[in-house]
Each structure stands twice: as structure tokens, then as C-alpha cells.
């Protein structure tokens, strides 16, 4: 429909999601451990972008690396279908991504956008706060297999007219599992002043894997594939120990340095030590601050926000993101959900190379086919 004009230099791509995700990672990593889903957060904000006009639209376009609403929606639809469909019926790997647009009963949005979004649209009564929150939370709980039971509180919905919700769930077994009997307690040297030294359960694996040294990233890079072979975890271990090395790697990370590092991996015998860990993260105020720091200020401003392609007099009151990851000897389970609330104004035998993650590292769960950064974190 014509409310989604095609842009002469349209852009919506995996590289854009990676750039956006790494921007957010750099903002959030100031707080220590971080874990979130770039694709999931991008999806919910991309839905909001469809309703943005003027300066709000320009800011979101820069933030999300999107040009053209038609391109944005087509790409999002395609990715959700591709990612959710590819592993259907496989027992060792499961990936599901979905999004929904909840609209308040009696709240009229632009009819053309209404029809463009019809496949993910649901009308609910935000006047019944608890019931509305339950509806949204049940959707997220179901979509994340119970890993994220709630994303909104009833008290957040008092002025809400639209809620843009996205959810992602991932479960994958390692192609080469770690032997639990080789897991031992070891010291993990966290960055001083951010986190003290701690004892972790260190998993251990010795075998031929894809390993590389990236000079651009000042880091060693290891690929740990999941069973299907098309989704992998990439671990970036800074060459220099301590905060300086970690910051240097974080600063240098972008789609091209990451891609170059992925292409530069070679099969080597590796002695891997990776902590077994679980993280549950909740981002609200700090995520909104990060988005503002990255230039998307108008969407949160009651006066300046322009979402007139949806409806007049609305702004984004809340962006909430929750993420969960559990990394074990057998594999990884991860999930994330985002709520954007739109309110009314009021090898051959060789020496094995050590890859010892006993200090902070960055990890990426990455779809090798679409090149979409599904999850990213720093431990």
C-alpha cells in the first residue's frame, strides 16, 4: 500500500542490525555483564519506525540503519519467516522469532498501515490494565517457552494505545559437546572495579575447531557451531588482558571487522575453556538512555514525537527488553522479548592452541546464513 512508499535508496539488511546491535552493546557494556538480542530489539523498533514521520523518522532511520518503510516491513517479514521456518521439526535446534502489534479497542490507526500490519495485529482493551498486561505477557511467555514470563506491568499501560511486542527463542545443542566430567571450578578474572574475581564452573573441550587471530579486533576468535551448522556462537577473547584490551576489542567491533574475522578462521586443534553461565537481563530506563545517546531522542519526547503515520498525539513511553541465556556443556538456550509502548500524550595432529576464557569476553550467537546477529553479550 502507498503508506509504505518504496525508497529510491532503500536499505534493510543484516549488516544494519549488527551495526545497531553493536552500538547498543557499547552503551550497555559500561555496566558490566550484558546480554540482549539485537534482532529482537531491532524488530520492535522497526515496527514503531513504520508509524514515524519527519524528524522522528529520520532519527529512527539512522538508529536502525533503515531507509524506506516498505523495505523495513518486507525484510522483517522475510526474516521472521526464514528464521522460524528453517529449523521446524528439528530436535537439536529450535529458533522462533515473532512480533505482534496490540492496538487499543476503538483507537483508529491509519487504515493503510492497519492492513499492512494485519497479520500481526490484535485489538485489546488497554482500559482493563491487568487483563491487557496478561494478554501481552502470555504471548511473550508462550513465544519464549517460559523463559521470559512477563515483559509489561499493568501500571505501565495506563495511557497505552499501542504495544509493539517482539519475542525470540533459541535452543541449540553444540555440534561438539563439552564433557561435564571435565568441568572444574576455576578463577575468572573479571575486570577490576567492575566485577571482582570470581570462581566459575569452567567447561573444557579439546578438538579441531575454527580459530583465528583478528588484528583488527585485537582478539582471538573462536567459532563453536551448533548442531545444524548454520547457527554458531563466536567468542572474541581480547588479546590484551584487563579493561584496556576489552575496550579496544569492543571499540573495533563492526560488521566488516566481524565478517573479516569470521572469514579468517582456520581449522586448528584448540583447547577451549569456557565458563558455564546463565544470565537474566532486564533493560528499561538504561536502554532508553542508550537509544537517546545514539540520537533517537524525539520518539520519547511527548511534544516532539511524530508518529502521525499511526495516529496523532502519540509518543513512545517505554522500551523494555528482557533477555535470558543459559550456556552449558550440552548447548545454549536463549530468549529475549521487547515491548515498545506507544502512549497518548498526557585437524592434523599438532600443538593444541589455548583458548582460555578466564577473563571477560564478547560472545555472539549468529545465523551464518542470513548473517543476522541473533544475540550478543559480554561476560
UniProtKB/TrEMBL annotation:
Pfam families named among the record's database cross-references: Serpin (PF00079)
Which keywords label this protein? Protease inhibitor, Serine protease inhibitor
Give a GO cellular-component term. extracellular space
Please give the Gene Ontology molecular function terms for this protein: serine-type endopeptidase inhibitor activity
Q: Where does the record place the Serpin domain? A: 22-377
Q: Which family does it belong to?
A: Belongs to the serpin family.
Q: What is this protein called?
A: Serpin
Q: State the organism's lineage.
A: Eukaryota, Metazoa, Ecdysozoa, Arthropoda, Crustacea
